[in-house]
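Researcher: Next sequence.
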Amino acid sequence: MARILVVEDAPDFRLMMHEILRSGGHDVVLAANGFAAIQEIGAGEFDLLVTDVLMPRWDGIELIRALARRGRHLPIIAVSGGGPELPAAVSLALTEAAGAHRTLYKPFRAAELLGTVDQLLAGNG
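Model: Next structure:
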């Protein structure tokens, strides 16, 4: 079992990821944006981060960069469905450049998320 931080501004999608990861046996902590995620990371240790890219109050790219500046290295999965001003492919490419280990396009299947988590936790990132 891993301790995973999920950062997602859309409440329904955040809850869905929580349920998927819990069903995979993981301990899941939720944050609604990158700013809240930094507070959670400061308060505890995590084995993996799953973050949306496009969010208010610190997006996923800002979060990934902030973690790197603070010397916090953990496997990162970035997820995005894109937005009106930034297609998903572009936002996910930006997160990879910032340091995300894997990316997933929204919507994704539960098995896709769990498989990616398992690969990264096994050190295959």
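Model: The longest strand covers residues 3-7. Strands lie at 3-7, 27-31, 48-52, 76-80, 102-105.
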